[in-house]
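Final report, closing paragraph on structural work. Over the funding period we assembled a curated collection of sequence-structure pairs, and we close with a single example.
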Amino acid sequence: MPTDRPADTRDAAYTDRLTRLSGVWWKRMLDVQAPYRWNLRRLGLGFTLDVGCGLGRNLVNLGGHGVGVDHNAESIRTARASGLIAFTPEEFRQSDYATSGRFDSLLLAHVAEHLPEEDGVALLDEYAGFVRPGGRIVVICPQEKGYTTDASHVRFLDFEEMHRLCEKVGGKVERSFSFPFPRPAGKVFPYNEFVVVARTAAAAA
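Its predicted structure, as stored:
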């Protein structure tokens, strides 16, 4: 079971936890984000909508080439203080970015595991329309060991569940892989991830 951590991702306490974890000295010294940064950039996602962006770690890994949305207002304030473009859902809907097909890709990283299945589908469906026809949807979820590290995790998703999530919003899965290590490592290494890349339907000729 997940360890004792703040269980509501909307709370300022959850932002404090993310800030504390990201600021651990050895993580900064070793640049532990380097492989994950490389992984995101090699996917060539273009202008990306990062749904559930938190403090904006993936926006940084994408070189700032995107916009973040998160329901935690404190996390959004922290992301903006870092110079990133980020909004609460209400702010995003009122922004110039909330137009159909505005983004090349949608990133849902370490979000779906916090939601019941129907809520995860509804969230992805809410934002999928902002991705251009033929664009990409990328879903990233923790593997077994990582799943146990956060009390706000409510649903474990493997490749099969992630494929179903993408397909329910019209995505066609193109690629699935374990990162940064092969799949068995996920049982002991908390930072091993499932990565699923899907393609939205192309525009009609």
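Residues 12-199 form a domain with the Rossmann fold fold (CATH 3.40.50.150). Strands lie at 48-51, 66-69, 86-87, 103-109, 131-142, 172-179, 193-199. We thank the funder for supporting this effort.
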